[in-house]
Structure formats: C-alpha cells, structure tokens
Amino acid sequence: MGTDREKLVVIGNGMAGISAVEQILKLTKRFDITVFGSEPHPNYNRIMLSYVLEGSKTIDDIVLNDLNWYRENGITLHTGTTVAKIDEQTKKVVTADGMRVPYDKVLIATGSNSFILPIPGSDKEGVVGFRDIADCNQMLEAAKTCRTAAVIGGGLLGLEAAKGLVQLGMDVTVVHLMEDLMERQLDHQAASMLKSELERQGIKFKMGAQTAELLGETRVSGLRFADDTVLDAEFVVMAVGIKPNVAVAKESGITVNRGIVVDDYMQTSMEGVYSVGECTEHRGTCYGLVAPLFEQGMVLAKHISGVEAPPYEGSVVSTKLKISGVDVFSTGEFIDGPEHTVIANKDDWKRTYKKILLKDGVMVGAVLFGDITDSAELQKLIKQKTVMTDELYGTLMGTGCCGGGAKKTTSVESMPDEEIVCGCNGVTKGTIVDVITNQGMTTVDEIKACTGATRSCGGCKPMVEQILQYVLGDGFKTTAKQGICGCTTLSRDEIVAEIKEKGLQTTKEVMNVLGWSQPEGCSKCRPAINYYLGMINPDTHEDEKESRFVNERMNANIQKDGTYTVVPRMYGGVTTPEELKRIADISLKYDVKVVKVTGGQRLDLIGVKKEDLPKVWEELDMPSGYAYAKSLRTVKTCVGSQFCRFGTQDSMGMGATLERKFERLDFPAKFKLAVNGCPRNCAESCTKDIGIVGNDGGWEIFVGGNGGIKARLADSLCKVKTDEELIEIVGAVMQYYRETGNYLERTSEWVERIGLEQIKTAVVDNPENRKALMERIEFALQQVEDPWKKAIRDNENSDKLFNRLEVGNQL
C-alpha cells in the first residue's frame, strides 16, 4: 500500500458502512481502508436473516461481500474485533483488545442493537433479540428442543422472526402492545389484512397485550401480562425495537443525542470523523430503514472523495417490504384523519388494498398491500406534492375519468435517477442506466455482478429487467439473453430443442456437444439436464443419480443431524388402522425420534439412521411418499360427500384416484394437489399447484397456487361435469407443465410466465392437443416404479449406498 494515501478506518462491517466504502471505491483510490467488525463474518445482508432462520438460505447465501472482495480491493478487515474509542489526540482508533490503528478519517457505522424490555425476567435463559447471525443461531438451536415460542413485538423484525420459527415447526404467538401490526408503517385496514394472512400461515397473535414479567426459574417458561393473564412459552424473542449503537462515540467524546449527531455531510462533532446508518442522528431523526442509510452513504462518499455533492437533507420515509411472501408499502401520511380526502380500493379475492390520501387535493401519502406495482410512481408523486386529477386518478386506480379504461402499467421512465431500485444493496436507477449505456451491460447477471442489484433477495429483478427494456428498447430481447446457469448461454427451450434434434442421451453428452464453459457443469444445470432428458425420453433415459440432489439419491429427506425422514404414501390423506399400527411398530423398533402429522395429511417418521432406511421401507411395505423429490408430493382432501353434510362430491375418492394415477412422475419442481368436496375449501385448494373444488354440477379446476414464501392464489382454469373430464384435464395440465416449465420453476411462476390463457388454449380449448398430452403422460407413467422397492430389490448397490458416507459431489 502506498504511504501517501490517506488512512480511512471504518468502524462497523454492516450494510451501511460497506455500502459507503463501495461508493468511495468507485470515486477514488486515495484511501488505504481498514474495516473493523464485531461479528466474525464478512459483510452480510441483515434483511435476509429471516430466510436463514426459516432454512431457505444459508449464511453464505446472504453474504454481500466475501473475504475475496476485501482482498481484491486492498481492504484490511478485522472481524470479531470491537472498537472501544477514537483517540483524537493521537489520531488512532483503539480496539477493546488494545490494538491501535492510525487514521486520517474515520467512518462510524455501528448500526443498532436490539432493545430488550426492562422487565423482570428479561435476563433469563431462552430470551434473545433478533438482530444478527448469533441471534439467528440461538433461535435455530432453540427450535430443536422447544415447542412453544413468543415473539414480543409486531413490527417487521418480530413478524420475520415469527415466520422463521413457524417454519422450524414451533408454535408461535406474536405479542403486540398495539391493536394493529406494524402501526408505524400500515393503517388499520392493511394491518388487519396482514394479520389475517399471517394467521393463515400458522402464526398466532395476542394484540393489545403489555408484557409485565417473564416467568420461570433460570430459564423462561412463559409471559405474564399487565392484566395477569399468562402465556406459556419455552423461548422468547424480543423484537420491540432497536436503539442506535453509540457506545464508541460516547466513549470518544463525540456529541450524541439519541444517535450520533451529524451535519448535512455526515460529519460528527469530532474533526475527520463521520457517521452513517442506524447509529446516526441527522436533523433530530434516526432512520431504521435501509434506503436512508444508502442515501447517507452516497453523500458521505462524494464528500470525503472530494467530489461536489448536494448536502443530505433527510429522507422521505417510505417502507417497501415483503413479509412472509406478502408485499406491503407505505409512504408519507397513511393514517387518515378529518383533514384528508381518502381514495381507497380493497379486493378481498385478490387480497389487495390501495389507499391514497389527499390534503386540499394534494397527494400526501399512500398505503399498498398485496400489489405494490405503483409504489415507485406513488412515492415520486407524493414527494413532488402532486395535485390529484381525473386523469391521474384513472391511471392509479384503474379507471378512466368516465369510469372506463384500464390501469396503465407503471413505467420506469417516470422514475427519478436517484430512486433506489435494489433496497438490499442501495443500487439506484441511475446507476443501472449508467452501466447499461456506458459499460455495455445487457443482462441482469451482468448488472448483478457490476452493481450488486438482485444479488440478495431478488425482489428487484423485474424492475431491473424493465430498466433494461427501457434503455435497450427493441434490442433487449436479443441482447439480454440468459442461459439456465453460468455454464451456458443456452436457454431451457434451446437445450430441449438441441436434445431432441441431436438425439443427446446423457448429461455429459449435452454439456460436451452444446459447449458448456464448465465441463462438469454445476449444481443448477446438472439436475435440470437430467430432468429434461428423462422428460423427453422417459423409456430410454438412464436416470443419473450423480445429477440428483442428495435427498433424491437417498429417497428420503436428510436432516441436520444426519438422520433421515421417511414419508410413506397415504393416498388422499387416507390410511387404515393396520398401516398406522405398522408405522408405530417400526418407529419403536428403529428408534424413530418423532412421528409428525404433515400439512399434506400424512406422517413423517423423523430420525431414521441411513443404514436402517432399506429395512424401514421393507417392513413398512408402503409406497414412497416422494417427500424428497421434484414430483407429486401429496393430494390433500376433505372428507367430502362420504361423511360431510355439506359435501357434494367424493373428494377422498377422487384424491386417492389422482394420487395413485400420477405418483412417481418427475416434474420441474415439487407438485401438490388438493380436492375439496364443496366450495368451503377445507382442503385449501386455492394454494395448490392444481386445486379441485366440487360443486353440485361437477368440478372446478384451479392452477398455479402456492402457499410458500411466494404465496399465490390459484387461478380458475375451467369447470367440468364428469370425473373422466377432470382426470384428463388434470393429466394434460401436468404434462404441459412438465414439457414447458423451467427446472425448479413452481407452477405459480409458470402460470404467470406463460399466461393462463395459453394454458387454457393448449389444454381446455383444444381436445386433440389435450388427448396428445394425456397420451404422453400415460407413456411416461408406464416407465416409473417405486424407488423404495427398487432399492430393496437391488441389495448390492443399496448396501454400498446406505452403508457409506455420502462423499464427493453433494448437490
């Protein structure tokens, strides 16, 4: 490192500090940079902790800047090191363990800490905050032994924690002091809709409750409220708010109020020392959202790099969040009073809500729930204090001034350049436009690699694609071509076409002939190609176990302790006393730790040792439930006309028929059905890949539902009168999805990509095509067999597989 360069020390290795460093690196090379972080990790996305908690991402997945990034940029990183104070006299930063590092400039970005309620019992074991990876790990450990949890606080952090704990199998109650969730971001209507949606996902609520004491001896056992009622809880998460981490500033004699006080260029009261992020107080305000910290970082970066920059004048507070798969947005004033004119639209079927508030005809605030397409446009209009007009009303609310017309699609053209597109990484529209026009970027992947946009949660990808379309115009489709993974530029359709045309037979052959950049492929493309080969040639393709995920290779779900979960078939959720007794006897014999009733109406046998799997399967003498596979998982049913006084159709019989007919077949992703005997929807058909609802005249078929992270209500495809029509259309939809779906693409995404009308055209409106699809799925079904029976029969290979460690290529 050059000795003539200024020394910049960054205290805090979080999103605010490192985002500012990224901006500085783009502007100048004048600094030697040293970063101190109290956590033993590189910079990661704190927003994504709930995904780690629920298991859909790992800690590595949420890292924003890995250790190589620090090395490549000449940054000295000290992890697991806390800074005690800044010594202004010697111009050195002093760590808690005595290290002294000289500085020319210092950036404090220490963020905030969880606020722990000062109530009796808050120091007991089993009480944690939810702020960092350490908290996340404590919650993961607690879920292994605790069954009941309470989350105190109904704000964003509390709801995210509750979602993660529910996903881990815990019984979770959110305790909130107010009557509305997220009352600082949502109005009563949006908060009520959010509460109803989260209750559907399994979260319980106790509203208007003030926690007075945490009960228990050394470990927490429950909560006592101000009204003396009690809630049992073996684990408690405090998520009642955050407080700026100002310890280092206080110790150094820097002016602190609630946060570290700064001017409009983020300068503290100590010369050469700056502050950004949640630890910072600007014009009396501390911000707890990501957009302001990125805006502060951009001003700071320009200022200390010697680039002329306008002062930071505060942020227009808006909230754009995804909570348990539900999009919410608010900006400006969102609680209506007598002084407001209210424009509102609520759709209970689509579960969407929009409210715009006017004051003397001027737009002053808005709330969106479920559909936040208009969020950028509304934020701009409210920031500009726009007067509402009939034309603008028609655009925003989907009607013309005379009651007709259609809602226009919000265009990125109207977004200001400083608008943040990627909230996880602070990437603005202007930055993305710049790399497209000046650096020749033409794909989302290129923009991700260059700017960081889309690299975290991916929620901004549609907006990035819109910006590409806007900048490149007609050239977008041809230049923005992306392959199925980084090993190839070929799309799914091109690969399938080449396999058919060239008669390719194996994954290695596909990669060799089609010019893969990585000869061995990767964990994304190998399973995809194996699936496409099997879908195209079901009778001749030899399934490649090495291209399967570990669960599919073992025909069981691997657990975190190395044991496995075995899930036998229960057709339509129906079993017999004999099968139940067999399950109980085998669970005792093979020391199965837990037998769990699943949401798909069957039983998980959790904790089977790998070497015992073949014996368990043989003694169960039941088919595999394919709980581990990209295949038909379950067909959920209600009791229907056989037993229910409201039932109009035999849902149990139809569910069992469909499950028996279509089991064992590979799909692009996991596949679930549900059959209801009447429109009361007890089997929850509206959130399944195919949902079937009985009525007096026959059946109604729904497609594309999803109850997971990206929740989606299924779309009505058609109505049929006979069971035969139902089976044929269900089979044809399945085969059409098998032939046109991208690998790992759920039907909820597939329906939105290719369109409901296209599916209707291919399956419902064209009897000849429907018949051909059905013939192809019937042919594929003739080639499959139960994998458990196959493994039992193949003693030699089974012995090798189930009595050795899984080594080598783990997908």
Automatic annotation (TrEMBL):
Membrane-spanning residues: none
Keywords recorded for this protein, A-Z: 2Fe-2S, 4Fe-4S, FAD, Flavoprotein, Heme, Iron, Iron-sulfur, Metal-binding, Nitrate assimilation, Oxidoreductase
Keyword Iron included in the entry's annotation: yes
Domain FAD/NAD(P)-binding span(s) in chain numbering: 7-281
Obligatory cofactor(s): FAD; [4Fe-4S] cluster; siroheme; [2Fe-2S] cluster
Family classification: Belongs to the nitrite and sulfite reductase 4Fe-4S domain family.
Protein name, UniProt field: Nitrite reductase [NAD(P)H]
Species of provenance: Paenibacillus vini
Upper classification of the organism: Bacteria, Bacillati, Bacillota, Bacilli, Bacillales
